[in-house]
Amino acid sequence: MLGIQKDFDGFDPAVMAGINSAMFSLSQIGIGPDGGFNITGVEETWDELYDEVPNLEAVKTYIFLKTRLDFDPPGTGYLVQSMTERITQLESRLMVEVDPDYVAEE
Taking the model in full, what pTM does it have? Predict the structure, then answer.
């Protein structure tokens, strides 16, 4: 999703750091395995990470957006703001998935 060729691994450490950071954020809101999870390479699969997570596509989008902002942020403030707002929206919606009684602060 980041537009990097699969056979080029020069950016792997930076991308993995962004992915792991996003997964840490998800863990903090109750999404994912107990105790969190970090990827170490290309061997991990979505099933290992989020076996029984509802709305897995939202989780994938969240991880992509967080990683993109860490690894390759857009050049315009408008796009950064748009991505940041989408991340915040996804966080709120995912928190409701975990805890239906959650009420987002306005």
Answer: 0.82
